[in-house]
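Handout, section B. The chain below has 74 residues.
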Amino acid sequence: MEIRIGIQNVSREISFETDMSKDDVVEKVRAAVNDNANLELTDNKGGTVLVPAGVLGYVEIGDASARRVGFVAG
């Protein structure tokens, strides 16, 4: 699943893939915002992304489906 995080006053977003479920991501974002704590997510390579909740602009949770690769005959 692709996650994109926008940071206030920063033009680039943080984008990464994770094996976490959508519900887990939503729960972690809500908890971080409610507690004014760090949002801590794990990417699919075992890395950790930490973002202070106070600077979050948005968190976009992508589709859980696999990406398609191929060509269309036309």
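Note. The chain has a mean pLDDT of 90. Compare this with the example in section A.
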